[in-house]
Amino acid sequence: MRILLHTPAIKPNWFCVESIADIDINGLEVDWYLNLDQPSIIKYDNNSTESNPKWRDYLAEKMNRARKVFLNRNYDYFVNIEHDHIFHPKTLKLLLEFAKEDIYISALYVPRPSRNPRNVFVFNKLVGNKQVWLDKKEAVKYDLIETFISPFGFTIFGRKVIENCEFDNGIDGGFAWKAHKCGFKSYVLTIARIGHIERNGFVFWPHC
Amino acid sequence: MDLYSGHIVDRYLIFSPCYKENLVRRSLLSLQHNKSNISFLFTSGNNLDKEFKSVVDIATIGNYNKLLVVNKNVVLDYDILEILQRKDSLITSAANVNIKKYVKKLNLSACLFDSKIFHLLKDTNVDKTFTLYFNDYVEVDFVKCNYGFVADYTVNFMYTEE
Q1: How far is CA A182 from CA A103, A144, A175, A178, in A?
Q2: Which CATH architecture has domain A2-204?
């Protein structure tokens, strides 16, 4: 099984880099694309990525560059790991147990309090036409939950999903609309819990 | 444009089959300090020929200007990119002497390739010792610099004398 690990960032958190390096890849063929250089479309000042209003365009260009790399080679799965997460070495293998070529699955994590102080997980589902954040108690009743938007913190995409859907500056939300339009489903694996690193160095883990 | 300096800079892709070689990986990642023009591809090293061809594709697709290839047992000095950068050379290689040579095979300890010869790299082969075989003679600029080899418990650094 061939896997492309992709990390889009300018300044990766080094705990995250070490976490990726520690992933259990025995029996797998894994390449790691650490996509740190800034794309051509953005002119930067010295602001950090997130305070730059164009960071979404920037991220989309990086994701699509990695998509091209993925499509050009015979990888089976594309795994996106954002630069601010830490996780157990078995997380990848846990996600692989549930992965299929026509779905994408995210690990479970909480939003960083500085950006989203609500007591919810980082994913939501559609109720009627409305997107709602999933309540924690409801979420952990199931191992694998079908969602409307699965976040991109630690996410495994089947080949068919990547073949049919480009990334855009809507990031996880924009991608979700495209994927669902093409008939692909998205999930969150609640037993694969990962930490989210806050800027002050604290790491937030989901617990319930 | 560089995030820190504001200057137009070349975009580098650094490739090494060192995914699990902590020391080498760290030494390479440190090259990124205060720069925003470097990406990395780390592979397992199980099939060097295939992996090398992959990386040439990726460098081409990603429009990188330079490709630095580093063996999984080589630790480099922090200024290696500046040292290997030569205006009039398309291939430069870390060495213990300064010399230009025409070669048909090249050991990929630490070699910098310009995007102008990426097309040539597609027709090459890499063997298990991480040696690159060209179809014809190519000019390589061997550049004197400091680098080390990771042994079992030590890094044997080779300092070149002035």
Answers
A1: 11, 21, 11, 6
A2: Alpha-Beta Complex (3.90)
